[in-house]
Amino acid sequence: MINQLSNHILFTARVLIILGFSFQTYGQIDLFEEVTEEMLSLTKDELFPDAVAIILERNVEVEVGGYVIVKERVKIFNKEGYDYATVDFPHQNIEKISGQTYNLVDGKIAITQLSKRISLAGNDKGEKIKKLESFTMPQIREGSIFEYVYKATRGTFNDIPLQFSIPVKKINISIRNASRYHYDILQNPRALLDLTITKSNETTYLSKTNIAPLKNEKYVFDINQYRSKLEISTTGAVNKKKYNTFDKYVESLVSRTSFINGYKPVKTYKDDVAQVIKGVTDKKKQVELLYNFIKSHKKWNGYYGIWPDNESSRFAYKNPEGDGADINMLLISVLKSIGFTAAPVLVSSKRNGLPITPSSDVFNYVLAGVYLDGNLKLLDAASNKANYNMLPKPMVNWRGILIKDDKSYEWVDLKFQSVSKSSTLVTAQIDEDLVLTGNVKYRLNGHYASDSQETLKDVSTEKFLKFTNIDDGNYEIENLTRKSVDTIAHQSVWDYEFTNEFDIEEVGDKIYLSPLLMYGKQTNPFKNEERLYPIDFGYPKVSSHMINISIPDGYKVQTIPEMMRIAMPENIGSYLYSINVVDNVIQVVSRFTIKESVVPIDFYGELRKFFSLRAEKEKETIVLIKK
Questions:
Q1: What is the pTM assigned to this prediction?
Q2: DSSP-assigned letters across all residues of 62-76
Q3: What b-and-e string marks burial along 253-282, b requiring 16 or more CB atoms within 10 Å of the CB?
Q4: Whole-angstrom Cα distance, residue 542 to residue 591?
Q5: Which of 88, 123, 298, 537 is the most exposed, fewest CB within 10 Å of its CB?
Q6: Does the pLDDT value for residue 32 go beyond 50?
Q7: Both ends of the chain: CA-CA distance in Å?
Q8: Closest CA to 212 of 202, 227, 201, 224
Q9: Average pLDDT of the residues in 72-93
Q10: Contact 87, 114 (CB under 8 A)
């Protein structure tokens, strides 16, 4: 079912027709349309009436391998748009900045120049400007128009954004090649615009008007995945073969010994490997032992890429640290040395994009693939967010390429290999003063535990409450302790105590109590009727709560919410909610399950209804009465 998502994104945008526009000369900022009193008096845009600011025109000139010139004019409509007067630089080595702000003052146009301290780099050597990350335009007020231009000599292969958090009335782009590489110009397949791109005299031109702003939504891994942009995708060096197909790409890769030697079996580790698996005959256990051996003895230096830093697996074994390719290729080498069918699997992280078109940077990571009982198991021995049964979330991105021993390849689907679980066990009691107290044991494994280990390196109640989405200020958390942490298997156990003096409501001789205490989700996160992007839950997961609440003497349960069991279509997820009463103890069980990490927007209506039913159920209360 989730492959439906792949079918929606398996395409690219290419060249259509020639556009006739010329690019203004760098530094001549007055070549924009003249700013008029009418333009400054506008309070909103007809097409985008809710915009707090708008890009009136943006021109980008790229000489790949040489420089980038960006020239932009922006209109500020109200105070909420003031933040857009701070300009960030996506490029390095800024050589020059100039700019000015226009305001209507007493019926006349007043112009304020950008400070020379910024535009002239701040010192004679120009060192500050090369390191400058942002600047703010002067004299910004409601109705202002500002414009600026800068030139950078690095970052010419960077993506070129077409869409921003405010609308764009007009964008012009020109791209020409001054580098030693072939390249293709591609659109983000997740966010195609109706663009026209072509070449004329070795220059590619692009133009577009009225581009809607990028809208953020909940449950999106990275909103930039859905930003309309151009990618300058290198496909080989000039005067050398151009890998314009994946066949050519793989052929070029496996022809290089620097790649093949990364996972070639060697004798260097023979004795150590024999010792690790001594007496173990089960193949799956052997692989797990060797995985843990490599993972615990090699430190990832944090670098991505598909090319190992070390010359071969022999050097990688001797080196205590390496990049992702070094470590995972070493694992492949070790597994191959004792007879396993193992191979590198090239993948692209979510931020790197979908591997649709071959280029030098289409893949940016290597996983280890090994066949067990005829099934391919993918492993990552480098990342501290992975274990034997768990791949890092960013690497589960559609599909990857497995390189076979005969130097051919095949595409493999990338899927989560396990379900991450969180379980909360609560023992609580209500005293005669209607104060609720209790203790909690909170267990996590898989990605739940991995996320907690990253976020909660230090035991902090504030961070813990934020991580667990416990935002009820009426609960006082005490004695928060982390009982155990297994960073290899990714398991964590937390204990804490709580007190609440305010959430139990007494009306006459009745008491009203929320069954899930601080853990109930009483609002639907999907309030909008329509959805733009797929829903990303991060990973398959099960979140369960078991709550036992002892009621005070002199009271009995009058009513409890009815049991609920609901499911989403095609086994995407489910929810169970049940309450029982045994003697003077209320037993509450809830279990929320998501089996797909990413849900296509086709299912948004059903998913929205599912979360609405859950929220309404969790609003219901238990009613106690005096005996």
A1: 0.87
A2: EEETTEEEEEEEEEE
A3: bbeeeebbbbbebbebbeeebeebbeeeee
A4: 7
A5: 88
A6: yes
A7: 54
A8: 227
A9: 93
A10: no
